[in-house]
Amino acid sequence: MDEARRRFTITAEVLVEVTDAAILRRAVLERVAEAGFVADGDRSADQVRAAERDAVHADDAAALDWVLYADAIVENVVGVEVVGSTVSIGEEDATGAGAGGLPGLLPCSPSVNAGRTTATTAPASR
């Protein structure tokens, strides 16, 4: 008899430090230029791409969103299938506190990846 499939939620926090924002932005802008975009509502694919470029120029968190893949936390594990993931990026202050002086990360705005097509093997809600 087959064993019932069980699902687990894995919670992990990764603290990164942007050591060179200009290099990060250049690398991400190359990805934006090569990525496939689709029209989103009343915006054409080119308008969506332009909005992504603007977001990357204006915000390191938007740039980081392009290089973070939560699905990769469980990569190439036999017998395990990633069925979804979420990513939230926030900035800590100099004391390591997020919003309201509480330790941890400040949730950011909804994903800046709206309208972008990505090549992933498992469905992800970013």
Quick overview of this protein structure:
The protein has helices at residues 21-34, 45-58, 60-65. The protein has 126 residues and is mainly alpha-helical.
List the helices and strands and how they pair.
Layout: H1 21-34, H2 45-58, H3 60-65
Helix pairs in contact: 1-2
Mind summarizing the main beta sheet?
Answer: none
Q: What letter string, H or E per element, gives the SSE order? A: HHH
Spans where pLDDT lies below 50 across 5 or more residues: 99-126
Rg over CA atoms: 17 Å
Strand residues, percent: under 5%
Helical stretch count? 3
Distance N to C terminus: 36 Å
Tell the overall outline. extended
Structure description:
This protein has 126 residues and is an all-alpha fold. The protein is built from 3 helices and no strands. Helix 1 runs antiparallel to helix 2. The protein is extended, with a radius of gyration of 17 Å. It starts with 20 loop residues before the first helix and ends in a 61-residue tail after the last helix.
